[in-house]
């Protein structure tokens, strides 16, 4: 029978310990640097989309390794197996006729695994117009549908020259920026896919319904080849083999700028590593009883799964996984979320995080709200849960594994709260959790100026919540 590998250590043994712990936590929080977090995000976004195995991904990995080494951590870089990767070196998409629409297209994005094509011109055809469905040859096709593998093959078979998608075709989201979708990972894709905004797609459709002929020019220069993602790990060694993993995926998994998703998470890992390393160097804390591995995965899921499959003997030593994903923005609330409270063996780890959320909410320099929430899926913490470990063919150890975030997905969601997990720091209904969202999720506008720079306090909040929790978990008195 498996038992949780997480050991809860109470630090509050006497009034003196309480005072000492509180002073240390305040000292930690005072050192969290908003400017350092913002600088990391800007630097990472400047490299490109950081897809694992690409030039920008390798640059980001070297940057992370260099920063971790400067903090005095034991650093190693893990090279994952090759996978097919994509680089869009340049592309263009412009209306050439009528002249009045030449400035229309903006915030477009070339879909991942689009092939290189030489500069060309083509008329625009609306796939929704039945009159043109049999005459797509040579045309650039407009659609509000998600271009999945089936639709893509149909358009290639019809000999279209390119595709414009303004999925999800909803004026309430992606109104003036493109949601990024990608083509199947293949060397054989024949025509490029350009993601455009709802505003652009709707205007083009209206013009064609009015009887106007629209002509585009377009090209693309891309590279599709095998590449090896690089995962960087910095170790603050403890007195034993047990350790926490604090991690974030280093790539923009959509393939766009990825400021919030997930340069913000990487910045959080680096800032947490900086402060805890400094506290250790200055003697404010002794060597932790439980070590901390600060990890930036080369590719979301792919690198995490590779690590798990190649380190099965180390799983028993993981005291818990704390994953940063999208800690840089939020449209409707000023809230820190701790996921997943429906996993029974996460209880003790989440109890500490939730206690920190409750104790510090509303204080100067801290969050307005904090809550735990049930699993939603879609990030690296899930790789360490038993069901995923079992699928990977490794021991299904009960590793507490949670994610910290400030926004998720592209629209607001309200989900039932797990029984017994209502937080005193939550201002909403006690029986539900409203998940804040990122206005620019997986889009061409996930750039610092409208995400992490617009609400720069989110990243420091997440670092403070995790750092204070680790001071209670990884050090004993």
Protein topology:
Layout: H1 15-31, H2 34-47, H3 55-70, E1 74-79, E2 83-97, E3 109-110, E4 117-126, E5 140-143, H4 149-157, E6 162-165, E7 193-195, H5 198-209, E8 215-227, E9 230-236, E10 243-249, H6 259-282, E11 291-297, H7 302-310, E12 318-324, E13 335-339, H8 347-360, E14 369-373, H9 386-391, E15 401-405, E16 413-416, E17 432-435, H10 458-473
Parallel strand pairs: 4-5, 5-6, 6-7, 10-11, 10-12, 12-15, 13-14
Antiparallel strand pairs: 1-9, 2-8, 3-7, 4-8, 9-11, 13-15, 16-17
Description:
- The chain is of the alpha/beta class and 477 residues long.
- The chain contains 10 helices and 17 strands.
- The chain has helices spanning 15-31, 34-47, 55-70, 149-157, 198-209, 259-282, 302-310, 347-360, 386-391, 458-473, and strands spanning 74-79, 83-97, 109-110, 117-126, 140-143, 162-165, 193-195, 215-227, 230-236, 243-249, 291-297, 318-324, 335-339, 369-373, 401-405, 413-416, 432-435.
- Strands 1-9-11-10-12-15-13-14 form an 8-stranded mixed sheet, with helices on both faces.
- Helix 6 links the parallel strand 10 and strand 11 (291-297).
- The chain is elongated, with a radius of gyration of 24 Å.
- Mean pLDDT is 94; it is low at 1-18.
């Amino acid at each position: 029978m498996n038992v949780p590998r997480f050991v809860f250590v109470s630090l509050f043994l006497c009034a003196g310990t309480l005072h000492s712990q509180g002073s240390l936590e305040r000292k930690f929080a005072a050192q969290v640097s908003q400017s350092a977090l913002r600088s990391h995000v800007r630097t990472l976004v400047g490299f490109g989309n950081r897809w694992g195995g690409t030039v920008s991904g390798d640059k980001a990995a070297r940057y992370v390794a260099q920063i971790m080494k400067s903090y005095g951590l034991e650093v190693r870089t893990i090279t994952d197996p090759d996978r097919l990767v994509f680089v869009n070196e340049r592309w263009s998409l412009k209306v050439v006729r009528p002249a009045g629409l030449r400035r229309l297209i903006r915030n477009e994005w070339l879909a991942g695994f689009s092939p290189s094509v030489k500069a060309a011109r083509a008329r625009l055809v609306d796939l929704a117009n039945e009159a043109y469905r049999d005459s797509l040859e040579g045309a650039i096709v407009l659609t509000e549908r998600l271009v999945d593998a089936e639709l893509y093959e149909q358009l290639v078979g019809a000999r279209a020259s390119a595709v414009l998608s303004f999925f999800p075709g909803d004026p309430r989201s992606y109104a003036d920026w493109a949601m990024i979708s990608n083509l199947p990972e293949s060397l054989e894709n024949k025509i490029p896919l350009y993601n455009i905004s709802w505003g652009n797609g709707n205007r083009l459709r209206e013009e064609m319904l009015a009887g106007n002929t629209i002509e585009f020019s377009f090209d693309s220069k891309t590279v599709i080849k095998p590449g090896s993602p690089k995962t960087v790990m910095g170790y603050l060694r403890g007195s034993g083999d047990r350790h926490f993993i604090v991690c974030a995926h280093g790539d923009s998994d959509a393939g766009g700028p990825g400021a919030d998703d997930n340069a913000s998470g990487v910045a959080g890992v680096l800032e947490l590593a900086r402060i805890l390393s400094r506290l250790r160097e200055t003697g404010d804390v002794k060597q932790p009883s439980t070590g901390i591995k600060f990890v930036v995965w080369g590719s979301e899921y792919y690198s995490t799964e590779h690590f798990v499959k190649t380190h099965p003997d180390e799983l028993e030593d993981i005291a818990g996984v704390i994953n940063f994903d999208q800690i840089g923005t939020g449209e409707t609330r000023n809230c820190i979320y701790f996921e997943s409270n429906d996993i029974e063996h996460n209880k003790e780890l989440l109890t500490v995080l939730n206690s920190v959320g409750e104790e510090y909410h509303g204080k100067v320099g801290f969050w307005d709200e904090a809550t735990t929430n049930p699993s939603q899926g879609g990030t690296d913490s899930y790789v360490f849960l038993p069901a995923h470990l079992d699928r990977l063919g490794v021991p299904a150890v009960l590793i507490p594994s949670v994610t910290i975030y400030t926004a998720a997905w592209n629209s607001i969601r309200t989900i039932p709260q797990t029984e017994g997990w209502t937080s005193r720091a939550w201002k909403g209904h006690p029986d539900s959790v409203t998940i804040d969202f990122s206005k620019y999720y997986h889009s061409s506008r996930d750039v610092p100026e409208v995400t992490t720079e617009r609400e720069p306090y989110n990243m420091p909040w997440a670092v403070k919540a995790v750092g204070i929790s680790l001071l209670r978990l990884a050090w004993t008195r």
